[in-house]
Design goal:
By secondary structure, the chain is α+β, with helices and mostly antiparallel strands. The protein contains twelve helices and twelve strands. It holds the Pfam family HTH_18.
Amino acid sequence: MKVIEHCYSLETKWIDVVAEAMGGTVDGNFIKGDNETYTGTHFVLVMEERISAMLIDVSYKETVLLKYKNDLKRFVGLYFYITNHNIDFILDKETAVVGKFDYNLTIIDSALETEYAVNKGTGTYVICIFMDKTALKEYMDKVPRLKTVSKDVFNAEKNTIISMGRMSTESSILLNDFRKLSYDSFLFELYFRGLVYNLIGDYLDQLLEKKIIIGKVIGDDVKSIIASKALLLKSIEGIFPGIEFLAEQVHMSPSKYKKLFTKITGFSPGTFFSDSKLEHAKELLETGQYTVSEVSDKLNYANISYFAKRFSSKYGIFPKEYQSQL
């Protein structure tokens, strides 16, 4: 597996780091590449003094391990993904696969070194937003509810900023609409700026709906929670395994496990499991190969009435009605 390292420091510019690591031709704020590793486009823009953003629109011709190392510990990365294949996220010195990319929005403190294993044939479209922690704190302080916790959120001795979840429907629409814009458009940079600020705003809106957990996190913690998420997804057709069992699998106390899982994913283990089960139920209904009763049985719901109630609560429509509209 080819290894590509991105090393960021005070002395480097984002565009130079990417061009050196990935190869390609720099043309203004664009890097256009077509080599043995990938084909595609990067676009890098300094939005303002403390905020930069990068678009990655590439297809990989070979399997690679992407490593990101930062001497800069002062920023937070917001990553919004669209990809045609799973990407293996790795947070460890070893190159072992620890979890599948079942999320498409990650928020990561630059103090954490990250790695991604990308398979040949994978196409990725990513908007990366790099914000100085002081800038993100100023945004949060404008929202009264977030201001009450922002001091602890950005206290490096108390907290590590890390979150892995799903982007909102609004963010997904913003990305898909922006993808229609040609790179040759004279409005490209203007619309890109608008996209980035809208994504930041939508992320802050999402924070209002989540419980913010203050706590330190090391790489092994993240690795364990990703592995636990993978275990839950493999168990999706059964019943919830229970906190005690899940904590034991990753060698944590139940209280630490539940706190870290909620901090990193934004959901408690039970909520993550039940929501994922409902998403899988929706996918099964969409295939047209199962009746509502069969889906209920396949996913081990207590009875069809309970399944219908949970489905309606999440999607605002009963499963039978939803299936009839497909």
